[in-house]
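Protocol step 4 of 6: structure prediction from sequence.
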Amino acid sequence: MPRVLLITGSSGIAAATAKIAAAAGDSVFLVGIDQDQCATLSAQLPGSGYFVADVADENAVSKAVADCIARLGAIDAAFNVAGLSARRLGDGPLHECSTAAWNKLMEVHADGTFFVCREILRYWISNKRSGTVLNVSSVLAHFPERERFATVAYAASKGAVESMTVSAASYYAPHRIRLNVIAPGLVRTPMSARAQADAAILEYMKHKQPLKGDLVDAEEVARTAYFLLSDQSFPITGEIVRVDAGWSVTG
């Protein structure tokens, strides 16, 4: 049965998942910060819509969710993908991490995911609807790598997403509302451009992500994400599913 899927973000994993959902007959509503990316992606998705908003802006998120419901009639599932790297702002080891990087990552990852989840959960609860939320974390939240990926603010912000999701999954299970987390390894997306251009990191991935010997493709993560967003994954809730090509089980 076709559903309405709200996705935050408009490139990488978000775009790949949106295309899979549209191909399956779902209506997709994008919430992204880049007008051109949203418009270009939406044009490829029949029956879709989009709203330009920063998920770290509480009021903008409220308007985006309301616009999705008004235009597409409902929200059945939500995928919180919008995110960023803050290395340019000074993310790094704890003693070197800048306040700007810490705050920015918490605003986008922790606050942004919280705002979207809260708004949609309010809609589901007030209308006595069931639904599914999938939030994006990172393998770095529990399996750090000190030499090439010492980004404490990024890991901490993703850890906050995981804790919030698991806690909420417990509370909302009686309402038939599911919340899960997908935690990718290093994925080939625009956000990982720095890593993709680093020969030493590419060589390291042969060891650290041995199942592929390379970066994970966005489409590979998207396939698992869509399963977790779909009714086929019922009754899974409160789970953190790693899609990391072996990162977490490789020393």
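Step 5 (inspection) to follow. The beta strands are 4-8, 27-32, 49-52, 77-80, 131-136, 177-184, 187-188, 216-217, 240-243.
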